[in-house]
Model the fold of this input.
Amino acid sequence: MLYSFYDYFDQYLAKFFSYIGFSDEQSIVYANYSELIIALVLAVIFFYLVRFLLRVVVVRTINKSKNQWDDLLLNHKVLHKASYLAPGIIMDYSVDHILANLPGLLNFVNLTLDIYFAVVAAMIVNSIIGVMAHIASYLTKNKRLPIKGISQVLKIIVYIITTIVIISFLLGKEPGAILAGLGAASAIIILIFKDAILGFVGGIQLSALDMVKEGDWISLPKHNADGTVIDISLTTVKVQNWDKTISTVPTYSLVSESVKNWRGMEESGGRRIKRSIKIDMTTVKFCSQEMIDKFKTYDFLAEYVAETEKELDKYNEKAKVNAGVIVNGRRQTNLGVFRAYLVRYLRSKPEIHNNMTFIVRQLDPSEKGIPMEIYVFSKVQDWVEYEAIQSDIFDHILAAIPEFDLKVFQEPTGSDFRGVLKN
Done:
């Protein structure tokens, strides 16, 4: 039918060009050119007709459908790119008939159409890869597989194959011969795609060893990255820092460099509290009887102080210690009682894990005092609540220290020096 359409115009076009002064041979050639233009116009019209039908029929049907998977065809523009096949099909069907008398131009147009189909096919395949990657990413709940990186590699492979096919069209050789020729240029290819190759290898290692995945909290001091992994692609990893900035890190860096992954903390059910308070060494002393009696009134210490006092009295009596000298025998100190108080206070808090590492200890004394370190784990991992719990604990500790006749070590301030000068 289409051929008849062209033949119908062919006789009138040939008569028209003959009428305006061209020879019969030239009239036929120009008539063929004119038919080629008509074919191009028909191809464009057919393209917009297909687009219209897709928009009116297919797109509306997909939008009304409750199934969300078909929406991916629209989001990745699979149908949009497939519509570009329509004008190519019209032209491919028409040119052999229209340009039968012009073999040179026919070969050029066929070559152009072959390249056009190769490019459109690559676009469609890559859109389908995007759809499959989206589905795979949704179905892979643990996000261990580097789906995005794999899809990007597949897209690059499609483009490479398309480029080889186009070169084979232009040179008139088989694609296999082109591939054989590329072997000599492999070093240059590796150099050009070095980052992509390293990123792909890094992505596979991250997946195989379960090192990092989307949603993990990681720290990379070298790259000033400390936050949540929001995207792992072929060549880069995006980390949303806690100040909401985005750090972009090469994928291979997560394999070749030191990375702290906080996932273990999140999966353990606890978050570490590790902080110390420096005690002024000049306030450490043995407990007097008055202090012992006061400590017995503290809920967390009453039982501990009474039992410890009995144990020490029994020891000193057995050792016949001269009680008149304070350093003889064994005695309780305000610092030791304070440490026992911290243990019992922390044990009483429901937010603190009692079955994970639980230490209240003294660190090495220094010119800045005696560090009393709290090393425990909070059941709450959320940053805001975790910091609130930690602050509540140390608010209480700082307020309780004077009750044990202890002082927190603090560097002298300007007001301290002014007070000395006034005195």
User: Anything to note?
Assistant: Strands lie at 217-220, 225-232, 236-241, 246-250, 260-261, 271-279, 359-362, 370-378. The mean pLDDT is 79. The chain is about 60% helix and 10% strand.
